[in-house]
Each structure stands twice: as structure tokens, then as C-alpha cells.
Design a protein that fits this description.
Structural class: mainly alpha
Strand order of the largest sheet: 1-2
Oligomer: single chain
Radius of gyration: 18 Å
Largest sheet: 2 strands, antiparallel
Distance between the termini: 35 Å
Bound molecules: fe (ii) ion
Length: 289
């Protein structure tokens, strides 16, 4: 039986199913839209992802997000450098599945290496390496629907361009007039920095790194799962000019996140000195998680 997000104790299971789903089905590369890809689509994975979004959309409420921010944004859980965080994150690997050995580390390395090959600036490469470190939330016992998945503003209307929008009918905020108008608790064009996003690895890591990286890097980290904004063009009514100026960076990052699976996995041991220098240039010896 395919484990559901509620009964699957393996954090990597849903993360992988969700990422594959996003990559192949929701936001496929133009060339991958061929019928064959759809025929190859694996039904149990789709069900897992559906169930994941059912939970996510029902439980990501204004109150839930406040609670999680209070709980995690003091950043008093652990001090780690990026290498330690990568090792820690890699314990997400499901031992029962040989295919996903080094899954999380490989995703980050491949993202970073593809950015590097395209000749981008060093802070952009570094962003590729660290962008999903917030998934350590899974190792603090958080349910997967509160770590990964598309993110969206809470405290206002849920855009109908968010994937599996129908599941927002089960979110109590949808029935609260204060929280469900187009701007909700916000004022028009208040700027995304004033908007609470659904809780997950993006927002968490932004707070861990916000003092250290250039502004476009922070936007990539904070909004990389905000598909309704960077892919669907929604929520401009909450954006200010600064957000609009940063949007192309978030869009530039997205293909590296989704489509940089390489047939030849990068060799971490060989690459380590390069990344060690890069980390030293931008980040302190320990980060507060
Ligand atoms: Fe991510
Ligand atoms: Fe990612």
C-alpha cells in the first residue's frame, strides 16, 4: 500500500514524490510535455501528492503560521555550519530505497553545479547549494506538509491558480471574511516582506540566512516554492516595486531547482574544497537553526 503523508514515517517519501510531481507534471520542461511522459506517470505517486496537498491546504492557516513562526524563528535549536546541515539533511534518506541514496545532497549539488556551469556569480552558485537546507524541519519532527510543497500567502484569499486549489475549502480561513478577501489583513501593494507565507522550508531558511546573502539570493530562497507568484503571475496586488524587481531572479533560479538532474552525479568529495571557500566567503562558521 502506498503510504499516505499521515502514516508515512519516512520524510523522504513525500518530499521525493512531491518534487517529482512538480517537476514532471505541474511545471514540466516544455520538451517533456510529450504524451509519453504522461503515460509513464505513476498513479500511486499522484495519490500521495494529492493527499499531501489535501493536508497542506487544510492546515496552513493564519494561526498555524503564527504558531510555527513563534516556535522556530527564534533559531535556538542548533548551531551548524553548512556541511553539518548537509549531513544532517542527508539523514532524510530512506534506507529501504536504494535509488534515493544521497538524494537531498545530490539535488543541492546538482542545482549548484548547473548554475556554476552556466557561469553565474558565486553567490548564485552558493544559493543553489543551500536553498533547501530548511528541510531540516523534517528532522525536528515537523509533518511533511509543513516543510515542502507550494507556498502561498495566508491572511488573504487563496489564489485559484494554486495547485489543488479545491482543497482550500477545508481551510478554516476560507470561511473567515477578514482572512479571505483579495488583500485580507494586508493593504494593497504592501510588499511581500509584510505578508505571511504558508510555513515551510523556504521561509525558515530565509530567516537563517537573511543577514548574509545578497538580496536576490534571499528572494530565491524565500520564494522558490511560491509558484502562484513566480509561475502563475498571481498576488501582484500584494507586491511592491522591489518585489517586482526581484521576481526575475526567482524565475531565473527555478529551472535550476527543477531541471538540473544530471546523468553523472557530481562528486562531493572533489567539489568540497570549492564549496568550502565559497561558504567561507559569505557565511559565518556556524549558522543558527
Ligand atoms: Fe525547495
Ligand atoms: Fe530544491
Amino acid at each position: 500500500m502506498q503510504p499516505s503523508p499521515e502514516n508515512d514515517s519516512r520524510p523522504s517519501g513525500v518530499i521525493r514524490a512531491w518534487e517529482d510531481f512538480v517537476e514532471q507534471q505541474v511545471y514540466p520542461q516544455p520538451a517533456a510535455k510529450a504524451r509519453e511522459d504522461y503515460r509513464n506517470y505513476d498513479q500511486p505517486a499522484r495519490e500521495t501528492v494529492r493527499e499531501f496537498y489535501r493536508q497542506n491546504h487544510a492546515h496552513q492557516t493564519w494561526d498555524f503560521v503564527q504558531k510555527k513562526r513563534d516556535e522556530f524563528l527564534k533559531l535556538q535549536r542548533q548551531q551548524m555550519n553548512v556541511f553539518e546541515a548537509l549531513d544532517f539533511l542527508n539523514t532524510l534518506v530512506d534506507d529501504s530505497d536504494p535509488d534515493i541514496d544521497l538524494d537531498q545532497l545530490q539535488h543541492l549539488l546538482q542545482t549548484a553545479e548547473t548554475i556554476r556551469k552556466d557561469g553565474h556569480e558565486d553567490w548564485f552558485i552558493l544559493t543553489g547549494l543551500v536553498h533547501d537546507l530548511g528541510k531540516v524541519l523534517c528532522l525536528y519532527g515537523e509533518p511533511q506538509w509543513a516543510v515542502v510543497g507550494d507556498t502561498f500567502p495566508v491572511g488573504c484569499q487563496f489564489s485559484d491558480r494554486i495547485i489543488f486549489h479545491e482543497f482550500f475549502a477545508n481551510n478554516p480561513d476560507s470561511g473567515d471574511p477578514r482572512l479571505s478577501s483579495q488583500t485580507g489583513v494586508y493593504s494593497k501593494n504592501c510588499g511581500l516582506r509584510n505578508v505571511l507565507m504558508s510555513w515551510g522550508h523556504d521561509e525558515y531558511l530565509f530567516h537563517v540566512l537573511k543577514s548574509y546573502l545578497p538580496e536576490p539570493a534571499l528572494y530565491m530562497i524565500r520564494y522558490h516554492s511560491f509558484y502562484a507568484w513566480h509561475r502563475e503571475g498571481q498576488y501582484d496586488w500584494l507586491c511592491d516595486d522591489h518585489d517586482r524587481e526581484m521576481l526575475p531572479w526567482v524565475q531565473k533560479f527555478n529551472p535550476y531547482d527543477l531541471y538540473s538532474k544530471s546523468p553523472e552525479p557530481p562528486d562531493w568529495q572533489k567539489l568540497r574544497p570549492f564549496y568550502s571557500d565559497l561558504l567561507q566567503k559569505y557565511l559565518p562558521s556556524k549558522l543558527s537553526f
